[in-house]
Q: What sequence folds into this?
DNA sequence: TTTACATACGGTTTTTGTTCGGTATAATAG
DNA sequence: CTATTATACCGAACAAAAACCGTATGTAAA
């Protein structure tokens, strides 16, 4: 399995995400638009390179016929690990340069991972040391587990409830009290949880 | 499984939803109306294209006879899912044809995934509906979470402890009692947990 | 025999992939 | 050092497939 260049991996990931989200492959023009190419030839070049490296395949002159090869289909994504997130008493998120691989079907636009610190979500089965996969959104639904920036000060992982008086951020642990605030910025919602057992 | 175009996927989705809601397939006219086609030929073209791609099938000259093919009926993920596993009162593991994708670093030789049923491991943050990634091993260490076949009868997910009198399979939920047995075959140990949030 | 349906043929328009002939840059082999 | 190759991009023209149209015909069942 030949290694891909950085750009080729970006193109491949874009295609994979697009297929995942839409159920069909992107057109060359859509790929060009996404990457800011002014020429379709650039897309064609990359597609050809990826075909040479057996990362994908398509049919001649058939619209939206790109398919990932099985070897690459089964691969996971590397998403940025943005830092640790407090699930107990709120602490500042820590930036890191690590990445973590997640299942392809958890991947979408604006997805990243956070490592959980604390035990405030343990009744939802999110434990200290787990990784949560986050999708950046601003408008969560009631009951979503969200990453919230409170008072422009600290970041925390809680269940989200919109109420008359403001926002209630509810821990899933009876030992903690909810946070009631009007000043919370939602940074994303939890799409998945990943736990690793190391022996 | 040939990829569909955008339009073809829209048509297929419409048919699938229609069948789901009504119990029978839409007529060509209903499809045309829904998409604003002025010609039935357009519908016929799409039906033919979808038949060519084996996304659906119908009987010649039979009204509302469109049927989705099994492959498109249920969309699959990346990696095989071997069955469901009881984490509550032990029940037989159920074989399925589903698949699931898992992070690369959880993957190894003899690795598969199981869907968790029951709540006996909830104190370990393994909840009903979660997927556990299992590595086939026969000799676990004390404290490992294992998949065990007990008395050649049922399969269950428990914490493993070797004791003088035999094997203790310990649930992580105070409402359940441990299983004490000499007759347990370990099928593997848990390498990871994956949870999906669907909204 | 009417109604509701599917199918067929010969078109046009829009979307999409393909190709040719380029530029620029960086890494690599001779 | 130079020649070569791989990568990454451009602009424009082109050709095929996909999507759609109107109209006509055929089938099955009430």
A:
């Amino acid at each position: 399995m030949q290694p891909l260049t950085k750009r080729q991996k970006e193109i491949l990931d874009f295609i994979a995400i697009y297929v995942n989200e839409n159920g069909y492959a992107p057109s060359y023009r859509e790929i060009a638009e996404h990457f800011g190419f002014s020429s379709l030839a650039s897309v064609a070049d990359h597609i050809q390179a990826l075909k040479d490296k057996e990362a994908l395949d398509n049919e001649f002159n058939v619209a939206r016929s790109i398919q990932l090869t099985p070897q690459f289909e089964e691969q996971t994504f590397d998403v940025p690990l943005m830092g640790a997130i407090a699930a107990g008493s709120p602490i500042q998120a820590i930036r890191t340069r690590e990445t973590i691989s997640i299942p392809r079907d958890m991947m979408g636009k604006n997805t990243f991972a956070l490592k959980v610190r604390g035990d405030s979500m343990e009744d939802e089965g999110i434990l200290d040391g787990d990784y949560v996969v986050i999708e950046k959104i601003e408008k969560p639904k009631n009951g979503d587990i969200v990453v919230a920036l409170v008072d422009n000060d600290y970041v925390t992982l809680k269940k989200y409830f919109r109420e008359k008086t403001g926002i209630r951020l509810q821990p899933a642990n009876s030992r903690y009290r909810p946070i009631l605030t009007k000043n919370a910025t939602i940074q994303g919602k939890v799409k998945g949880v990943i736990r690793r057992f190391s022996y």
User: Anything to note?
Assistant: The helical segments of chain B are 6-22, 28-35, 40-52, 70-73.
